Amino acid sequence: MTAVSLAEICDFLEAQAPLSLAAEWDNVGLLVGDRGDRVSRIVTCLTITPAVAAEALREGANLIVTHHPLPFRPLQRLTADDPAGAMLLRLVRGGVAIYSPHTAFDSAAAGINQQLAVGLGLTEIAALIQVEGVGDAGTGRIGRFSPAVTLAEAADRLKRFLGLLGLHAVGDAQARIERVAIGCGSGGEFLDAAAGAGCQLLVTGETRLHTCYEAEARGISLLLAGHFASERFGVEQLAAIIAQRFPALSIWPSRDETDPLRWC
């Protein structure tokens, strides 16, 4: 079976999502593995769960590219006494490396926030918050509906793009929306930047109740697609990007990963 070095794949991923774009608090890049190892099978996922770890081992993956880092915080011990430690031990024993682009991929030129903005049909797309030294890339996205749409119409566009039956909204369904801020995942922190840029809408995955009240008080609408839905499509696209660069390898987005939240 054709294989390439883990170092070559890491270099490619870092070119797609430069680690300098990552938030200071984040843990990105190669988190587990030996750059000299050979890789032939890669699975991408949003989060390494027991189901994803089992899939990787069952399918003979050599590398998991996960959006959310594992480990995320510094480890004081690595044991099977907790779920994260147990998964890491199983993956290490199985020869599975772990790479996470996380917030670097959120902010990359072709990353998740950019894809959300394009998927919504926004024009004049730019970084919401510029990052010094990285050209036009930056944190979040801002764009424009041209012509303006209602909040209900913006919600319909988002549901179609993400394949959702519903989402949470803050604001009047008939509110006029022209300028839009995007922050995938848990993006309530972008509310101030969105307000400062004159946005009528912030699109994100989830946020705190008090942020919803604050947005309502400031006259800014919110569309909350759910953390999973606002990012999972991006790791599916990332699998396709890696496969285009390394066509001889076996690469797929996790088939066993699911959103833990359900409507009932």
Please tell me the overall pLDDT. Answer: 95
The value of Rg in angstroms is: 19 Å
Physical arrangement of strands within the biggest beta sheet: 7-8-10-11-12-9
Q: Any idea what the shape is?
A: globular
- Residues in helices, as a percent range: 25-40%
Strand content: 25-35%
Q: What is the tally of beta strands?
A: 13
Low-confidence stretches: none
User: Biggest β-sheet: count, sense, barrel?
Assistant: 6 strands, mixed
The ordered string of helix (H) and strand (E) elements is EHEEEHEHEHHEEHEEHEHEHE
Class per helix and strand makeup = alpha/beta
Number of helices: 9
End-to-end distance: 45 Å
Question: Could you name the key traits of this structure?
Answer:
single chain; 264 residues; alpha/beta; six-stranded mixed sheet; 13 strands; 27% strand
Write up this protein:
The chain is of the alpha/beta class and 264 residues long. The protein contains nine helices and 13 strands. It has helices at 6-16, 50-58, 83-93, 102-107, 112-119, 151-162, 191-196, 209-217, 227-245, and strands at residues 4-5, 29-32, 38-39, 41-45, 63-66, 97-100, 123-130, 138-150, 168-170, 176-186, 201-206, 221-224, 250-253. The strands form three sheets. It has a six-stranded mixed sheet with strand order 7-8-10-11-12-9. α3 links the parallel β5 and β6. α2 packs parallel to α3. The radius of gyration is 19 Å and the shape is globular. The termini are far apart.
